[in-house]
């Protein structure tokens, strides 16, 4: 196995991961319900996001949190998301960028979860 090195590797990681997400009994219905028939568009965004984050190629612009702000997700959903992501990366890649991808995914899930819980507890709606 090799490390994540280029856009083709990013696409392989993203496609493999979301193939698992789509059929997962816990988070699949949530993602499929929100994304519906816009999977190609979502995957393109994710290619750009991860290419920007891991390879310092600025192909993503935007804010990743707002689309998740109103989703019906709890800690258990984030745990499953992370499990699937880490298992995907570990099955495909090894190296510094692979470790960075897993670390960044964990931090992003943690931040999203905290923000969603904050809005719920405070009775506020996120500004999106």
How would you characterize this protein structure?
This protein starts with 6 loop residues before the first helix and ends in a 6-residue tail after the last helix. 68% of the residues lie in helices and 0% in strands. With 128 residues, the chain is mostly helical. The chain has one domain (7-122): Globins (Globin-like), CATH 1.10.490.10. The protein has helices spanning 7-23, 28-35, 39-55, 75-92, 96-122.
Give a brief rundown of this model.
With 128 residues, the chain is mostly helical. It is built from five helices and no strands.
- Secondary-structure class: mainly alpha
Terminal CA distance: 40 Å
User: Helical stretch count?
Assistant: 5
Order of helices and strands: HHHHH
Whole-number radius of gyration? 15 Å
Name the descriptors.
single chain; 128 residues; mainly alpha; Globin-like; 5 helices
Note the topology.
Layout: H1 7-23, H2 28-35, H3 39-55, H4 75-92, H5 96-122
